Amino acid sequence: MEPIQVGLLGIGTVGSGTFEVLARNQEEIRRRAGCGIEITMVADLDVARARTLVGNRTQVVADAREVIANPAIDIVVELIGGYGIARTLVMEAIAAGKHVVTANKALLAVHGSEIFAAAREKGVMVAFEAAVAGGIPIIKALREGLTANRIEWIAGIINGTTNFILSEMRDKGLDFAEALAEAQRLGYAEADPTFDIEGVDAAHKATLMSAIAFGIPVQFDHAHIEGITGLQAVDIRYAEQLGYRIKLLGITRRRESGIELRVHPTLVPSKRLIANVEGAMNAVMVQADAVGTTLYYGKGAGSEPTASAVIADLVDIARLHTAAPGNRVPHLAFQPDELHATPVLSIAEVVTAFYLRLRVVDQKGVLAAITQILADGDISIDAVLQRESEEGESQTDLIILTHETVEGRMRAALTTMQALPTVIEPIVSLRKEELA
Which of 69, 74, 345, 430 could join 258 in a cystine, given CB atoms 3.0 to 4.6 angstroms apart? Predict the structure, then answer.
C-alpha cells in the first residue's frame, strides 16, 4: 500500500516533535497503520529554520496554501493555532478533500460545528486528539472506549500552567504573582499567560469534552469561566487544614435540566487521586454508569507528548480513510443527526458546594447571624473553622464549608452576609466538589 502523504502547517514545538517522533518510530507506526505515513511537505513562514529541522527529506514552503493545493497530500496537519488564519486554512483543506488533524482546541471550541459540518459534507475526517490534554488519549476514551456508557460527569486538570502555579503556591507558600513569575522563568507559562491563568484554555478543552460526552454541539460561548488570578495563598492554606486542595478544574456534568459547563478554582478532597496531580501534569476523571470512575493522567503539553496524540490521529485516518464515511467514528462520538440541543445551564443554576472565608469582627453573635442567613437560604453547613484571634486583635477569619446548593441561592446569601456590619472585607467564595 502506498504511504499516506502528510502536509504539516507550522513546525514549531509540536510540529517539530511530530516530525521527529514519526521519523524515529516509523517502522512501528507502519506496522500498526498498515501503511507508511510520511510528512512530505511543510509550510512555515520561517523557511530557513524549518529546513534545518527537516533536512532534505521534506519539501518546505512559506505558503500553507501550496500544501493544501498539492494533490499528492492526503492529510493536512494544522499546528498554527488561533482562530484566524488557522480557521481559513482548515476550511480550505476540507474543501480540497483533505483529511485534517489539528491540535487547535480554541478553533474547534469556537468554530467546531461549522468545521465538522463541512467535513461531513466532503466526506473527510477532522481528528483532534492533541487538542485536549496533550499526550493523554482522553478524546479516544470518550469517543470509543466509553461508548457503552452513559457519562455522568467529567472533571479535569487540563491546563498545566495553572496546575504548576497552584502547586508552587501550596508547596512553597508563594503568592500568585511569585508563582506565575516562576512558571514563566521555567517556560511553563507564556510571556502573555492570559488564556491559561484566566481559564480560557481549560474552557476550550472542557467544551470539546462536554460535546463528546453528552452528544451536544460545541458551545464555548455558554461556558462559565473563572481563572486563578484572584486566588490567595491564605485560602490554599485553609483548604489544606480542612483536608482539601485547590485545583483549576474544567467540569461538565449532566443534570435533569441541562448540562453544566464550567471552569474555576475548586476545592477537592486531598484523598482524591486528582487532588495529588502536581506540577504541569494533567488529569481527567470521568464518571460513567457502567464502568464507574476512570482517571486519565499524563503530560498535557510539550513537544513529544502532544506529537504522540497527533500521530495517533494520523494512524486512525490511515486505517479509516478508505472506509465509507458512515462507518467512521463520528467527530463528536454521536451520529450527527443524533446531537441534542440540550441547554448549557447558567452558573446560577449550577449545583455545587462552597468554601467561604469571611473576615469578621471578633465578637459574640457574628457566627449565629451568618448561619441564620445560610439557613434562611436553605443552605446546609458542612464544617466551620474559626481562627482564634491574637491577643488584642479585634478581627478574625471565619471559614465555612457548605453542602451542595443551587448557586443562585448562595449568591443571594452572600449579598446578605456582605451587608452585615460585622463582615469587614469582601467575602471569598470558592466552589467545592467531592468528586465521589
Answer: 345
The grid cell for 398 is: 471565619
- Residue 97 CA, chain-centre distance (Å), reads 30
Query: Between 47-54 and 13-24, two packed helices, what is the crossing angle to 10 degrees?
Result: 20
**Strand, coil or helix: what is 185?**
helix
What is the C-alpha separation between 78 and 87, in angstroms, rounded? 9
Q: Looking at the annotation, which residues are catalytic?
A: 205
Residue 219 cell numbers, joined: 458551545
C-alpha cell at 257: 435540566
Name residue, grid cell 449579598. 415
- Long-range (24+ apart) CB contacts under 8 A made by 18-26 are 18/77, 18/79, 18/307, 18/310, 18/311, 19/53, 19/54, 19/58, 20/303, 20/304, 20/307, 21/304, 21/307, 21/308, 21/311, 22/307, 22/311, 22/314, 23/57, 25/311
Q: Which domains does the chain have, with CATH numbers?
A: 4-137+303-338 (3.40.50.720), 139-299 (3.30.360.10), 348-432 (3.30.70.260)
Return the amino acid letter for 46: D
